Task: inverse folding
């Protein structure tokens, strides 16, 4: 593992996308006041701008892209870097990649083109404001390289470079199609255009990361706006991983906890990035409630991530007083807790397979549903790839759509022989048409896809703990399965009278249940359990709690000694971290409840404490003491059967229980 000191703990990502028509850029900037504001707000790193989406530069340069509103001789970036360094604050530098209005207007042949020849543009209309997107197969890439090289030389050694807007961008420009043909790809094929866009991105990431290392070997570097699901392939080009996730800005409150559980499995430091805005980037005048920003940074701490808060500098170069009062209060909390955060790594029992790439501002249904469900059950888990080391996990979860080919089946069989357990759901371990198994250890005989969109789950007593005695609706279609000899069947699938149709329906919604079938709602063969429904996707979409209870009761059979028990509401989030020196186990307990305050906006505005929360944690040996950090309040505990049992007197948003 790399030394845990590469990136700073309390960062500001300071946007500065400033239109060329603004002619007073930086006119009120005061370097000393700027740096003092950051230091007073407990900030130890500020990402400042060399080049924005408008394509303009903010330092002294002879290049024509220098912002026309910068007064002659005003080296805004240089003054920012100098002022921050004087206060011991890092100053990584921001460079926009595929968004560059200056280049697009000056060299229209560099703009990415759609299949019909129209330009690629945010808003998809020439009459709507939005960035024109550049094509990295054109001479624009060398143009960008020249800009980057000048920044690297002018500010050598740089603290870091943050490259933004770096997604895979297909195009139909002449250079893009010529390079495709050279790679034996068909420009007429949309799939081939996407494939080459990915290849092109990997090439320029390799090129630009090498440029940074060659000029500033100790600098950080990151390419933003890329799917985090690509990390296994792209981590060689990243010095760290930054998880941009503004919960109120389109990402939602599930994006960060899902993706951080994946990012932390790689040999890189990682941070979470939210923002001070009420909504999303450039929400001038929009200020987030304190409780929301406390929650978001508490989530980062609980998962071992460094913290970054986004802001945007006013064009004149002044900071927002209210924003930095808010940030300073939040970062004071982070600073107070850093002795219990430094070098902390997660303790986990479960490896949740990554179901699919999802999209940039979301996650696939099964990924989200599994993350929600396992979090609500307080289980400790990572999100993993089949190619990673799986032996560290006591249980693997294959959610809904994991394709198990011969190589993976062999790896899973070896994992089981080593003492592990597996829970598979939906189509995981089956052929695409659900007619055959591809992982024989499931111990089932699939009968194909159910003909019914909606069925019902009738729980048998051996899987029904906490489940009301009822036939519980399953809103998503599943698979009909029968069990093989030696496999235990749980419950019954109850099928409806008929499939609902426009000309054949009963009442307002799904058709009532009619027939209790021989098809089970779950199975278990040894240390392998299976649910013949896409239960995690269903939970993400519908939130039907019997789905969670079914998974809970199956996991209890496979994992009878979970790392952590917390008797608290399902809204409580719990993670377990570990420090080596000094030897500590830290349990983070988060009790914040985002509310749907508008049609499409979840927000945290109030922190409502809960009291006297029982916690039980499995440890290798009896701890000498337990206390709450950072207040150092001692906690009494009992030691029994390898578990420490204690009561947390109060969780006021975020509690840290330390056992050492």
Result:
């Amino acid at each position: 593992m790399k030394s845990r000191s590469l990136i700073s703990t309390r960062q500001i990502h300071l946007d500065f996308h400033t239109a060329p028509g603004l002619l007073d850029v930086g006119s009120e900037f005061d370097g000393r006041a700027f740096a003092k504001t950051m230091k007073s707000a407990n900030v130890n790193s500020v990402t400042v701008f060399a080049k924005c989406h408008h394509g303009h530069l903010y330092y002294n340069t002879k290049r024509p892209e220098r912002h026309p509103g910068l007064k002659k001789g005003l080296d805004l970036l240089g003054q920012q870097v100098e002022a921050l360094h004087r206060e011991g604050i890092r100053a990584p530098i921001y460079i926009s990649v595929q968004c560059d209005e200056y280049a697009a207007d000056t060299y229209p042949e560099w703009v990415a083109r759609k299949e019909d020849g129209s330009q690629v543009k945010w808003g998809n209309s020439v009459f709507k404001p939005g960035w024109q997107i550049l094509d990295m197969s054109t001479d624009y890439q060398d143009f960008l390289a020249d800009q980057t090289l000048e920044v690297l030389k002018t500010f050598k050694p740089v603290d870091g470079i943050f490259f933004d807007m770096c997604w895979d961008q297909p195009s139909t420009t002449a250079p893009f199609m010529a390079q495709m043909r050279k790679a034996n790809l068909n420009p007429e094929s949309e799939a081939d255009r996407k494939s080459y866009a990915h290849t092109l991105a990997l090439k320029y990431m390799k090129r630009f990361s090498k440029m940074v290392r060659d000029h500033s070997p100790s600098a950080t570097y990151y390419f933003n706006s890329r799917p985090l699901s690509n990390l296994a392939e792209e981590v060689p080009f990243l010095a760290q991983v930054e998880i941009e996730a503004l919960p109120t800005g389109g990402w939602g409150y599930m994006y960060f906890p899902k993706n951080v559980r994946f990012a932390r499995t790689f040999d890189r430091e990682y941070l979470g990035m939210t923002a001070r805005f009420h909504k999303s980037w450039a929400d001038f005048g929009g200020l987030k409630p304190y409780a929301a920003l406390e929650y978001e940074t508490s989530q980062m701490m609980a998962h071992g991530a460094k913290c970054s808060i986004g802001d945007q500098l006013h064009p004149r170069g002044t900071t927002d007083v209210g924003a930095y009062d808010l940030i300073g209060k939040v970062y004071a909390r982070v600073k107070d807790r850093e002795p219990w955060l430094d070098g902390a790594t997660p303790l986990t029992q479960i490896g949740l397979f990554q179901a699919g790439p999802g999209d940039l501002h979301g996650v696939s249904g099964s990924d989200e549903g599994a993350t929600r469900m396992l979090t609500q059950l307080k289980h400790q888990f990572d999100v993993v790839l089949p190619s990673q080391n799986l032996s560290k996990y006591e249980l693997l979860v294959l959610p809904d759509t994991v394709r198990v080919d011969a190589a993976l089946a062999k790896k899973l069989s070896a994992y089981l022989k080593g003492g592990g357990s597996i829970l598979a759901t939906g189509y995981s371990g089956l052929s695409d048409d659900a007619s055959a198994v591809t992982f024989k250890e499931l111990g089932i005989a699939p009968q194909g896809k159910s003909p019914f969109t909606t069925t019902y789950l009738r729980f048998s007593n051996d899987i029904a703990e906490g489940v009301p005695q009822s036939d519980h609706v399953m809103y998503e279609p599943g698979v009909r399965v029968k069990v093989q000899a030696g496999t235990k069947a749980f419950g019954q699938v109850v099928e409806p009278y008929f499939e609902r149709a426009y000309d054949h329906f009963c009442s307002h919604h799904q058709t009532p249940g009619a027939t209790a079938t021989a098809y089970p709602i779950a199975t278990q063969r040894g240390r392998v359990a299976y649910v013949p429904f896409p239960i995690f996707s269903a939970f993400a979409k519908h939130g039907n709690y019997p789905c969670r209870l079914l998974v809970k009761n199956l996991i209890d059979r496979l994992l009878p000694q979970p790392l952590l028990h917390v008797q608290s509401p399902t809204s409580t989030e719990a993670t377990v971290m570990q420090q080596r020196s000094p030897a500590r186990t830290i349990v983070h307990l988060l009790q914040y409840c985002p509310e749907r305050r508008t049609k499409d906006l979840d927000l945290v505005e109030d922190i409502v404490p809960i009291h006297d929360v029982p916690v039980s944690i499995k440890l290798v040996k009896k701890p000498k003491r337990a206390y709450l950090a950072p207040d150092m309040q001692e906690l009494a505990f009992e030691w029994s059967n390898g578990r420490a049992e204690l009561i947390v007197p109060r969780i006021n948003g975020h509690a840290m229980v330390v056992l050492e």
